[in-house]
What we know:
Blueprint: H1 3-23, H2 29-54
Helix pairs in contact: 1-2
Amino acid sequence: MPYQAQALEVLARWREVERALEAAEDGSPEADTLLAEAMRLRDEYQALILAALDADRSVPPPFPEGSVT
């Protein structure tokens, strides 16, 4: 499974969501939706790391600086 390629896609989407979240009004329905999406992407990225480790593959790149944790 191409963990590196998948991780790059997830990280790119995560960055897009974080930029949109910064622009969204705090507490708005849009911000809530974006925050939920950021958390989902974080979990997806973590699952890729675990899958790579389980398959004895190289671990995807680290979390982006300033990312939601």
